[in-house]
Specification:
By secondary structure, this protein is an alpha/beta fold. It is built from 21 helices and 22 strands. It has 3 domains: 216 residues, no CATH class; 151 residues, no CATH class; 130 residues, GMP Synthetase, Chain A, domain 3, CATH 3.30.300. The longest helix has 25 residues.
Length: 569
């Protein structure tokens, strides 16, 4: 791999900035209780004169003389919250009022797509963006260098959301924080990205991915960053679907006229990346196609060093679709525990083997409720230093962006330690626990039951999903088998095995099935590429592909209706 000046400069400057900020993390990790107390005091002091701070006695809480007294005073004065508790305050900010949740007004909003409810508008303050998000990003990029020193010797494929999508009533911008970060990054880093920023403004889903990969496969890519592993599946499939068009474009230095974008945008993107006819690369790609038939990332990106996506929770069904697609030298690094509400921490080189996220105790304040206590009226809240290995917890976060004791509605498991900090990985969303008659069926139990049925029968699946039907008190299980010739009778037999496996892992489900309070689950066979078709439909209806997440076990009539349309006739 030939090193460009920008590659060398990026590695040097990111190493300097990253190592400085990692040292701060290491220092904070030596005594996470002390770091948490200092962080909570700093956030409360910052927001004490806001409307929310005055309503909840932040100044009084700060009078606590010990760490434990501080934690207790905070619990006594601020109740646990979800987004709906904050929505009225956010609306006041959106309409121009300052000093509501925090001093001043937001820098921007990160918005999340709503499915059955209104979208969330997550405030991003200047303090959060500059002192938390930006500094954590430096550590994140430095972790790539620590894991793979040659990671910046080539180009970067990074899939981000649209930086600016619109404005709130008071004129404050809203969009994707990752998009803004990529837009605002230094010029020497921008030159390493394969695609121009305008790619992410393309509304047409198919056109956007075409352009991403048209720029990507022409170049020597050494780093891929995209949170959602379903995006990797999309990229991989896209290359083979439009291979001839890509090769033709690369040979001529064009973007196909078949693609639904304006000529002005087409020329702007080509000029920004200085794209010229490249018959040599076109010939290389044709040779790969002739040799392998189906071309994979390991063929056109043989020097890829790191693939950075989610690996935990329900993502492993997507991982199976590309587990043999990348070169042996490539490290598949967990994206870390991350959301619009809170970039909680990072998987560090020291924790990459467990996929455990090191939450940053000097940047956010965390509380936790143990799994068995989640539904309690008065759950016991634990501090970060009180977590135990192997146990599962729901995190609550307090941030520099106006979220106080905010439930993340996730279930995390402790898998190790980084000095005094327990490391955590995602298990599932709390709303991935479904109950009709008290059975509390977990998404992870359903995944395990299907995987075990697949192993014992040899019937491989490309996708599966389950829905609770309260009206008939039964689960609908939808399966997309690799073998499209599977009969309904065979699917029913497979479904019976899934049902038996669920009884083994969930005694309440077994009891409810024995008493017929939960009826026999119903099997449905999905059409080919069902997930991709569902995702495309959701994006056409306004969902953001970069944020697209799908629980595998749901009680959601809206999404259930969409899958009914994808059943084989």
């Amino acid at each position: 791999m030939a090193k460009s000046f920008n590659s060398v400069l990026a590695k040097f400057l990111l190493s300097v900035a990253g190592s400085i900020n990692k040292k701060k993390l290491v220092k904070a990790s030596m005594d996470c209780k002390k770091s948490q107390a200092e962080t909570l005091r700093a956030i409360l002091d910052y927001a004490k004169d806001s409307v929310y701070g005055k309503e909840h006695n932040f100044a009084k809480i700060l009078e606590a003389t010990t760490d434990d007294a501080l934690f207790e005073a905070y619990r006594q004065n601020v109740k646990p919250n979800d987004y709906e508790d904050f929505r009225p305050y956010v609306e006041r900010h959106k309409n121009g009022e300052e000093n509501v949740l925090f001093p001043g007004k937001p820098k921007m909003y990160a918005t999340t797509s709503g499915t059955t409810s209104e979208p969330k508008w997550i405030p991003i303050t200047n303090e959060y963006y500059s002192n938390i998000y930006s500094k954590m990003t430096k550590v994140w990029l430095y972790s790539f260098i620590e894991n793979r020193p040659d990671v910046f010797n080539g180009k970067i494929v990074s899939i981000v959301g649209k930086a600016i999508e619109g404005t709130a009533p008071d004129g404050t911008l809203y969009g994707s924080v990752s998009g803004v970060t990529q837009r605002d990054c230094p010029g020497f880093v921008k030159k390493l990205y394969t695609a121009p920023a305008d790619v992410f403004t393309i509304a047409d889903y198919k056109a956007r991915y075409y352009c991403i990969m048209r720029f990507g496969i022409e170049q020597d890519v050494t780093l891929i960053v995209t949170a959602n592993p379903s995006t990797i599946v999309e990229m991989q499939n896209n290359v083979n679907e439009f291979f001839d068009d890509y090769v033709d474009d690369i040979e001529k230095g064009t973007i196909s006229s078949k693609i639904n974008i304006s000529d002005e945008l087409r020329q702007k993107m080509l000029a920004e990346k200085n794209i010229k006819p490249n018959p040599k690369r076109a010939a290389e790609l044709r040779e790969l196609k002739a040799k392998y038939g189906t071309v994979l990332p390991k063929h056109y990106w043989p020097n890829l060093q790191i693939l950075n996506t989610w690996k935990c929770g329900n993502t492993r069904m997507y991982l199976d679709k590309f587990k043999n697609s990348f070169p042996d030298c490539c490290l598949h690094q967990e994206f870390s525990y991350f959301s619009s509400e809170c970039r909680a921490g990072l998987v560090m080189p020291e924790t990459k083997d467990t996929n455990g996220t090191v939450v940053f105790p000097h940047m956010h304040y965390f509380e936790f409720v143990e799994e068995h206590d989640i539904d309690s009226e008065n759950p016991k809240f634990l501090q970060l230093h009180e977590l135990e290995f192997g146990k599962k917890y729901c995190p609550y976060v307090t941030t520099w962006a106006g979220l106080y004791r905010y439930t993340m509605s996730d279930l995390l498991e402790v898998d190790g330690k980084f000095n005094s900090i327990p490391t955590l990985h995602m298990i599932q969303k709390i709303n991935g626990i479904v109950t009709m008659t008290g059975e509390k069926l977990h998404e992870r139990q359903f995944i395990s039951a299907v995987e075990d049925a697949s192993k014992s029968t040899g019937k491989k699946l490309k996708f599966y999903i389950g829905f609770a039907d309260l009206e008939i008190s039964a689960y609908h299980f939808y399966y997309e088998f690799e073998d499209q010739n599977i009969t309904q009778a065979e699917a029913d037999d497979f479904n019976k095995l899934v049902d038996e496996n669920l009884k083994k892992v969930n005694i309440e489900y077994e009891a409810k099935r024995a008493s017929f309070r939960v009826k026999d689950p119903i099997a449905h066979i999905l059409v080919e590429n069902s997930f991709e078709k569902f995702k495309a439909r959701c994006i056409d209806e306004g969902a953001r592909d970069g944020q697209f997440k799908l629980n595998i076990l749901l009680q959601d009539e809206n999404r259930h209706a969409k899958f009914k349309d994808l059943v084989k006739k």
